[in-house]
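Still learning. Show one?

>
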Amino acid sequence: GAAPGTSSDFPIARDQGMSTTPIKAGTKPAPPPSAAGEMDAVKMERIKASEKALRDTLLGAVRVVIVTLSLITSYQIRLFAVERYGRVIHEFDPWFNFRATQYLVDNGWNKFFTWYDHSVWYPLGRPVGTTIYPGMQVTAASIYHVLTGWLGVDVSLNDVCVFLPAGFSVLACIFTGGIAFEAAVKGRKWSAFTAGCGLMSVLPAHLMRSVAGAFDNECIAVTAMTATFYWWVRSLRDEKSWAIAFIAAVSYFYMVAAWGGYTFVLNMVGVHAAAQLIVNGAKNFSWNLYKAYTIFYFMGTALAIRVPVVGWMPLQSMEQMGPVFVLVIANLYAFVHVQSKKMGEREFSIFRRRVVVYGVAGIFALLLAIVQSGKVGPLSARVRGLFVPHTRTGNPLVDSVAEHQATQGDVYFKYFHFNIFTGAVGMVMCAFHKRSPARLFVAVNFFVAMYFSSKMMRLVLLLGPACAAASAVALAALYEWIADEAMTVMEAIDPERKRAAEQAAAKAKEDVSRAARRAEKKGFGKSTKHFRISDTPAYITKWFRDNPDARKAIAAIVFAVCFSIGTSFLNRCWIMAKGMSEPSIMLRARNRDGSIVVLDDFRESYWWLRDNTPEDARVMAWWDYGYQINGLGNRTTVADGNTWNHEHIALLGKCLVSPELEGHHIVRHLADYVLVWTTRFAGFHGDDLAKAPHMARIAGSVYKDVHPTDFYVDEMGRPSDYMRQSLLYRLHSYGKAADVEPLEKYEEVFQSKNSMVRIWKVLEVDEESKEYVRSGANRQCDAGGWYCPGVYPEALEDVLKGKVDYQQ
């Protein structure tokens, strides 16, 4: 008999191999392995939850800081011009916009829209109220009235117009971030919003039209465009969000009122709707898409035709017919979808083929009927130029504008930097990975905007928001991954965490794809005989899962590379912002001692006209300068940047490229002074002599006695005989070139300080023709009394008989 408590009393324990080690008093027995595993799992889950909460808090704080700094930067980076030159309006078109805004503020809404301005396009005049996109003027005037009338802020209209582009850029950043937010997958939305705001705030493609002082239509049009696109994709978020299309339609109306580029916005929405219909198919037809597009098109069009300059163009312009056909196709899809619920599979297949055949035939018949009816006008020269293989539209007036030329390849890196590449990655991600209406829109928008931007330099502006949104989607995925790796760095440091991660990886092997299991069995390194390209994602996933140390090292390297590239991008943006903030109305140059001097010859010349010529003086100059002469010099001009009348500009070109006496025969009936840019004498060669070949081409397109090919300056800087005899060359180079004799019919009355502008007085002006226009006898008013286009003096009838109206 053994004493109680000895091992002989527990034969079962000994036989089953259990430990017989005595348990000390006051100690807890060790849990079985399964229980320990469960406890470790619970502990790991708690740690992960804590890390996730910390990650979300830190990332949320970082996002708030980045968005705040981005919006502040978006405003500040556009103020270089104000810091250097003061509160000055830039370029040419902004001066007309300011003058029109001033007229709206001084005279009110009704007079603005019945304003026929006879101080421009002499002697024809221009109906400003019905030929202007008034959105910007109404916006600036409204802000001015709110600040001065309601809030009592002492601010000038000039200051409102100068700072408005910078202010609206902030709104464009927010809406672009919103588009990226809608397109990003769950868990990355706020990172995409942050990246979208940050990129759009400094992207040179957006800066190019939104610096302070650039009071042009595009400065608010980009905001209107991004707002329309945001509300459009927001209306497609789910099956109950279609009502937001009403807001999208209102935003589109503002876009129409702001800029003629509204046709891009309308067609972009139409293309996206068509793409979504095709992707969904009749079986997966979305009633939300159908409702949203129907609301957007009908309400947007109903509002658009209320803009005077637009009128019935949405229903009469070929370039706006695409969205109409999309609406027809959407109704066909809806009809097929409804019928699919009533038919069997075989019956529906036959029915669908019939609908496709008859539908396509019907659409082509409708298109042919529209073209044959003559009710719908042809594509404009600018639009045709976007679809032809050559870089020119064929219209010499359109082709004379530098920003209408084809975009060179280096422009993309200059205006987008690395984002042109990450934008392409984002486009592919949105098109093929977890596709949604918003993601498809970002992909289609990037692709379409990329195409059009390659055709015309000016349209790089359209690619800005598209590239920022697509790039933001890609960067959000990258940065979220880097953040995940950074917040789980303990997996590679803590042995316990590392062991738990390995256990989790071992368990995850049971859930891998069939391709990954096949790759594991056959071995990637042993033989590639049976390896397939489709196995690549599985290999990468497995390798990343099994190597946390390498994964985090790669994340650190990627972060360092991104930080370096991002720093380079920001530096370029600041440099580009400074360059884009240089106004054309004032120039900076360096003296021989290296000091910087501001050349203010242009304003000096315009002010001379204002202070030293009669109030009814008429000034002839190439159309580029008309807005500034009218806005700063307050004198009547022969033509300006509106370029609405090709034949009138051709007549202006004929005056300048003709020999002195022949040109004077026309000029004496139209002008008292002639202003010529001669900037090459100050080292800037983009003056009127450089533009002379364009003048000759435009004149020759209407007046066949002008031979453009004979009008040039050779590689040695020697003018052709035709150019040497021209009025323009003589006005430009008299006293500067030895071969120019004194002029008989013109007297130089002003030359700017740095010889950048010369003003000549026209001798022997025809007072009878001047009085004919001044008295209003040349005006042919309609029944309403305000629409009073002018006609040319009778003395020019012989010249005008020789013109052939331009047709393309």
Remarks:
- The two ends are 123 Å apart (CA to CA).
- Confidence is low (pLDDT under 50) at residues 1-21, 524-529.
- The CA atoms of residues 387 and 637 lie 35 Å apart.
